[in-house]
Design a protein that fits this description.
CATH architecture: Beta Barrel
Order of helices and strands: HEEHEEEEEEEEEEEEEEEEHEEEEEEHE
Distance between the termini: 25 Å
Number of strands: 25
Helix content: under 10%
CATH topology: Porin
Number of domains: 1
Shape: globular
Radius of gyration: 23 Å
Largest sheet: 18 strands, antiparallel, barrel
Structural class: mainly beta
């Protein structure tokens, strides 16, 4: 059977990836990192130097680069491809759940079944307002169950449905829509290759996850117990060397009682193009538009609607042992009665040493503009949209991509090749403008000195994580983060102690 347009799309995703730093050298938290021969759950940080010592002592062999096709459980489950199961026995690696995949219903229909269970225990200390006196200690257990059914007709039609149940136990705070959802549709959409045959065009309509680029601005936010999703229509051109998607969407809001529904007052649209004609390098060009008719307060104190537009580009790739990424964005539009003009820039550079442990040293830089004058009619604060925030700005989720200057250095290594990865990352934070607020990973202002007298120094954070890839189906993540308050935060909060965050996570996919 000829490869379907959906399989071609998956291959394009595997080629372009979602961040610089192939072969498991990415810094991202709980997202996939595509590499030859398999996938790696990335940013499994921990005490990397210990991992280097263990690996060196073990004298681990080099990894095999030629592997038969095998089951791969992805971040976007609808991108999984089990067509290889149509081959002869011995041409692929068997898996215990093969009986659920690539099943035939006659000559023209095929279906897959799959699911996901995840548990995470968290302990947070002094996270409210950066450790104000009497700030809560919160120990909670997060559970998530998801099941999906994927049905295809020839190479022209696909129906995908995924249900979700999430729960939070022993939570000290109130209902949190990113943590709890007592049963609803995570996704339900159709794909239609409306031109037929091997055409690279198809349309997707329904509830769906959205993920673009490095997930700095549009991400399903897998770290959250309840993944982010949208009710959307998307037109896709899965060609070569261009892959282009245009979409119109509304974010779905979790309802404590009743079925989840989209936000009627929030329109989100975009055009995202990826060019992969350069060997080992990629280029993204994109445009996003937000039209929000809800009354919200801007950094100048004005209340009204938002119409914000983002133009951006991203270039990334690898050269020998080096990996790199650069992303630049400009925002314009209006918020209430004020005009908007904002910028952001991000850069990543890493070097992977020639050793079986694949030790990698990396540096990163992030800048997102802030508002420089609260009494004027212009807004300079960058809008981070729908990001995977802590993948770049610390696991503690105390800092967002708005009015921020951030640098980080990180070191990672596979203590046991292809099995156990450890990483340590150290972040430094400053306000881009000292009269604007500090924003958290959700984009909410947490601390502000409108006079600017408190200065720009925010603090620093250190993250340790260790990830154990137990099998193609299961993984375990252990992590600890500590935030060191400094300057700006000290002056504007009655601190008791610095925030700490410890967590242990187990996930099983089939």
């Amino acid at each position: 059977m000829a490869r379907s347009v959906f399989s071609v799309c998956r291959s394009r995703l595997m080629q372009t990836g979602s961040r610089a730093g192939r072969d498991g050298v990415e810094m991202r938290a709980m997202q996939i990192s595509y590499k030859s021969g398999g996938i790696t759950v990335s940013r499994k940080t921990g005490i990397a130097m210990c991992g280097l010592v263990v690996c060196a002592a073990a004298g681990a062999p080099a990894w095999s680069q030629d592997k038969a096709p095998s089951a791969k459980m992805l971040n976007l489950r609808f991108d999984e491809d089990f067509d290889y199961l149509s081959g002869d026995e011995g041409s692929y690696e068997p898996d215990r759940f093969d009986f659920l995949k690539n099943n035939s219903l006659g000559d023209d229909w095929r279906f897959d079944l799959g699911g996901d269970f995840r548990f995470r225990g968290e302990w947070r200390d002094n996270h409210t307002a950066f450790g104000t006196i009497g700030g809560p200690q919160n120990t909670q257990q997060l559970y998530r169950w998801m099941m999906h059914f994927n049905l295809k007709y020839q190479d022209s039609f696909r129906f995908f449905i995924q249900g979700v149940v999430t729960n939070a136990e022993d939570q000290d705070t109130g209902f949190n829509p990113t943590q709890e959802n007592h049963g609803d549709l995570q996704q339900m959409f159709i794909d239609w290759n409306f031109m037929g045959g091997d055409s690279p065009w198809y349309v997707r309509v329904g509830r769906q996850d959205l993920l673009y680029g490095a997930e700095r601005f549009v991400s399903p936010l897998d770290w959250a117990n309840q993944r982010r999703r949208f009710d959307a229509v998307k037109l896709v051109y899965a060609g070569d060397p261009w892959h282009v998607e245009g979409f119109y969407a509304k974010p779905v809001v979790v309802q404590r009682k009743g079925a989840d529904n989209y936000n009627e007052e929030f329109d989100f649209a975009g055009l995202y193009a990826t060019y992969s004609g350069f060997e080992n390098h990629g280029l993204d060009l994109y445009f996003f538009a937000i039209d929000r008719t809800q009354d919200t307060v801007n950094p100048n104190g004005a209340v009204g609607d938002q119409s914000i537009y983002t133009l951006g580009t991203r270039f990334w790739g690898t050269t020998d042992a080096w990996d790199y990424e650069a992303e630049l964005d400009h925002q314009f539009g209006s918020w209430a009665s004020d005009s908007v003009s904002a910028w952001s820039f991000s850069g990543v550079l890493g070097y992977t040493f020639p050793h079986a442990c694949k030790p990698r040293f990396g540096i990163g830089f992030d800048w997102a503009s802030g508002d420089d004058e609260s009494s004027d009619t212009s807004v300079g604060t960058f809008n981070q949209m729908f990001p995977l925030g802590h993948a770049f700005l610390g696991y503690a989720d105390l800092v967002g991509r708005q009015n921020i200057i951030a640098t980080n250095i990180n070191l990672s290594a596979w203590a046991v090749p292809e099995k156990v990865k450890a990483t340590v990352a150290y972040h430094l934070f400053w306000l881009a403008n000292d009269e604007d607020a500090l924003y958290n990973s959700a984009g909410a202002a947490t601390v502000r000195d409108a006079t600017g007298a408190s200065g720009q120094e925010v603090g620093s954070e250190i993250d340790f994580t260790v990830n154990w890839k137990m099998s193609n189906h299961s993984s375990m993540l252990l992590g600890y983060s500590h935030f060191f308050d400094n300057g700006f935060v000290d002056t504007n909060t009655a601190r008791d102690s610095d925030p700490d965050f410890f967590y242990l996570q187990y996930e099983y996919k089939f």
